[in-house]
Amino acid sequence: MSIDFAPRPAPASPATRLRAQGALETSLMMRNGEQLLLALVIPIGLLVVGFTVGHRFGIGTAGLVGSVLALAIWSTAFTSTAIATGFDRRQGVLERMAATPLGRTGLLGGKAVAVVVISLLQWLVLLGVSLALGWRPRFEVVQTLGVLVAAVLAIVCFVSLALAMAGTLRAEATLGLANLVYLAGLALGIMVPPSELGSPFGDVVRWLPTSALADMTRAWTSGSQDLSGLLPLLLWALGSALLARKVFRWTS
Amino acid sequence: MPDTVLLDLDDVHVTFGTLNALDGLSLQAHAGQVTAVLGPNGAGKTTMVRCCTGLLTPDAGSIRIVGDAPGSARALAEVGVMPQSAGAWNAIRARELLVHLSRLYNDPHPVDELMELLGISHTARTAYRRLSGGQQQSLNMAAALIGRPRLVFLDEPTAGLDPHVRQRVWQVIRQLRDAGVGIVLSTHLMDEASALADHIYIMDAGHVRLDGTTAELTAKQSLEDVFLANTNVGGVR
Predict the structure, then answer these.
(1) What is the dihedral of CA A240, A246, A248, A249, to 10 degrees?
(2) A 78-107 residues with CB < 8 A to B
(3) Which of A146, A161, A214, B215 is the most exposed place for a label (fewest CB within 10 A)?
(4) Which chain A residue's Cα is nearest to B141?
(5) Do A28 and B89 touch (CB under 8 A)?
(6) What is the pLDDT of residues A180-191, one digit of tens each?
């Protein structure tokens, strides 16, 4: 058998390439059982437990919904991205794909698309489960817009931090550290509000991106207004993007 | 067509800390020719390929891929790369990988024909991690060819392959050359270089020690003897 190998190189359009890569990354993330555990099973478990027995411990359900929405972004944009990228790098996926018309920008773009798509799906499922459990939303328009901006800034920040970690450490070290940081993030703002941590520790934690995002989503699902997280998130997003750009290595 | 320069490296330097990975490397590859790059482990061959795909930026010197800078969108479309450490996502299946790569091009080779040519049709639904080493090599070669490239980098394409598969890969390389594709072949196998190459560069310690046509280099002694006489163990000076 023979094929006409006469050269006819022609890259697909950037939009087509980004769509293809985003779809593949999304599909691969959704096939990974461990990542599904982080993305849906743990957040849904927290919601169910919080709604059924949380009142005995003084946990408000409206705030819990906001915490879990922040958790969804934290787990997908940081933990899942760090672990997946660490193994992509070790297995030579980055080296292979960076040498195609996708290039390095398209490769990162594909990851960003996957994180946004999965985060949106997580929010839809988690908001649906919360409604089914009896939560009734009272959204403020200004806070809704603020939360959307905060979510975008948080995704940029968490993905950048994930890339900085996965682009410098070995895959196994990334796996361990990403899970450790995931748990630390739960205690530092995502599930435990900084106001519960007392002063001055809570005042410091308030400036972490985990706290900044979760305080805003908690205010959103509670029907109140709090845009104080936008400035810390903006600063963290810029700083982390610069860090990732400086330290990320494509090969292991 | 053979005079068309597809790859032009001129006095390229790359350092990692105190190590000179590339130390004034200059070489060319032409359309319709197999250009073999031989060198001991650590000679700088993989670093060269990474520079040519834009993954590494040289400290000095210039690289042109079909007239464009490495890593540019145009240059990336012109080349197909089979890296030595090519890998894939664990969960992806063989055909799925090729279909995905084909979507990055406007006029790719038909996936099924390419898989048949390389003898991996039966692995279409097998996850990449479950393929044998030889099947992964063949799939990686298909991945490098899917976009109908003008220039192909093959980094040890037959390492670990049985003689049947090796002959099949050689046949594909000859078909590529006959079709006008330029091939940069990095290999440790002297018989492979002798059988396929039109021009051979022998690299050591990050630069070319000797180059010439296969006939020129093997006029007085075997290629292996030429190689041993011009290189050091581990590519060190």
Answers:
(1) 180
(2) 87-88, 90-93, 95-96, 98-104
(3) B215
(4) A96
(5) yes
(6) 999 999 999 999
Say how many residues make up chain A: 252
pLDDT tens for each residue of B15-37: 998 889 999 999 999 999 999 99
A131: distance to nearest CA of chain B, Å?
34
| Residue A210 contacts residue A185 (beta carbons within 8 Å) | yes
Superfamily of structural domain B5-82+145-232: P-loop containing nucleotide triphosphate hydrolases (3.40.50.300)
Q: Which two tokens stand for residue B35?
A: 């250009």
pTM of the predicted model, to two decimals?
Answer: 0.87
Which residue from B minimizes the CA distance to A99? B53
How many angstroms away from the CA of A4 is the closest CA of chain B? 7
Residues 186-225 of B with CB under 8 A from A: none
Find tokens 């959704």 and name the residue. Answer: A30
| Per-domain residue ranges of chain B | 5-82+145-232
What number of residues does chain B have? 237
What average pLDDT values come out for chain A (252 residues) when binned by 10 residues?
89 94 92 81 93 77 93 95 92 88 87 93 95 90 96 96 94 95 95 88 94 96 94 96 89 75
| ipTM here | 0.87
Nearest CA in chain B to A33: B91
- E strands in A10-56: none
Please give the interface size between A and B, counted as residue pairs whose CB atoms are below 8 Å apart: 128
Integer Cα distance of A183 and A177 in angstroms: 10
Nearest CB partner across the interface for B117, out of A1, A32, A100: A1
- pLDDT band at B145; cut points 50, 70, 90: very high
Tokens 């790359």 correspond to B14
Chain A residue closest to B88 (CA)?
A93
- Per-residue pLDDT reduced to its tens digit, A53-108: 877 766 788 899 999 999 999 999 999 999 999 999 888 888 888 889 988 888 88
Contacts of residue B32, defined as CB under 8 A and 6 or more positions apart, other chains included, come to: B1, B2, B4, B177, B178, B180, B181, B182
Tens of pLDDT, residues B77-109: 999 999 876 678 878 999 999 999 999 999 999
B237 pLDDT exceeds 50? Answer: no
Say yes or no for a CB contact (<8 Å) between B73 and A11.
yes
CB contact at 8 A, A146 and A227: yes
CA A51, A57, A63, A64: dihedral to nearest 10 degrees? -50
| Token duo for residue A32 | 């990974």
Closest CB to B81 among A21, A99, A103: A99
- CB distance A9–B148 less than 8 Å? yes
The two tokens of residue A76 are 């997908």
